[in-house]
Amino acid sequence: MAKRGHRPASTTGQRPRFWGRHAVTAALANPNRTVRKLWGTRDALSSLDLPPVLPIVYADVADLGRMVPSDAPHQGLVAEVDPLEDMWLGDLLLEGRDDQRPLVVLDQVTDPHNVGAILRSAAAFDALGIVTQDRHAPPESGSVARAASGALETVPWIRVVNLARALEEIAEAGFWRVGLTGHANQTFAQAIGQQRVAIVLGAEGEGMRQNTEAHCDELAKLPISGKVESLNVSNAAAIALYAVAARS
User: Fold this and answer.
1) For 5-56, how does the pLDDT look when each residue is reduced to its tens digit (9 = 90+)?
2) b/e for 179-189, b at 16 or more Cβ within 10 A?
3) Which entry of 54, 71, 105, 152 is 20 to 30 Å from 179 by CA?
4) CA-to-CA dists, residue 159 to 62, 115, 204, 239, angstroms
5) Per-position DSSP letters for 73-90, written without gaps between them
């Protein structure tokens, strides 16, 4: 088996920068995360218990604003970090073999805000982790970390080369793979039963690819009103995770 390694830092090759109190403090608290440098206002930094070896730069609000995307709510903190090391899908499935925690599988969901929001919901409902494709998912970034509100540090994020092969491995581990799509005949609640569930969601707009649907055990829909055509993928993930948590 290949050795684990660091994920690509970003599409530009630079280390990601996180901003905002939740994202930065969660990164600092994660023993598996290396924080390389921290910028902050004196007020924001004064409330943190920082390791003495961490390079710190005091900066004003305007300087921090130039380090992050326009209008990003940095809350006085910006950190430069190393990406987390990759985790193997097989290791995650082995870790969760004795529990009923759900797994979230994303098919070409590329928007960092959606992936971050899904990580946050996965943390809220104690999911085992999320699985995405390596090349058709966003890298770790400030946008993902901000939307995840700390969950990027606590929810395992598995990147795979071949999603169909990963779904086969997930099935072999005992998960019932339920794909969410608007053209299904049954509701998600009807499809999940009491077994271990892998919730499979497709890309924004296009939905799941045909081959991904073919690797699901069931297709299901959320019983939404006809007043809207569909839900944002992160909203759909949150509702599905709640349905799994709330089943009797």
Assistant:
1) 445 444 445 789 999 999 999 999 999 999 999 999 999 999 898 988 999 9
2) bbbeebeeebe
3) 152
4) 36, 13, 19, 23
5) --TTEEEEEPPPBP--HH
What's the rounded Cα separation, in Å, for the pair 202 and 120? Answer: 18
- What percentage of the chain exceeds 70 in pLDDT? 94
**For 194, how many CA atoms within 13 A lie in the half-sphere containing its CB?**
1
CA distance 232 to 220: 16
| Model pLDDT for residues 134-158, shown as the tens digit of each residue | 988 999 999 999 999 999 999 999 9
Distance CA 10, CA 15 (A): 7
> Encoding tokens for residue 30?
């994660």
CB burial of 112-150 (b: ≥16 within 10 Å; e: otherwise) equals: bebbbbbbbbbbebebbbbbbbeeebbbbbbbbbbbbbb
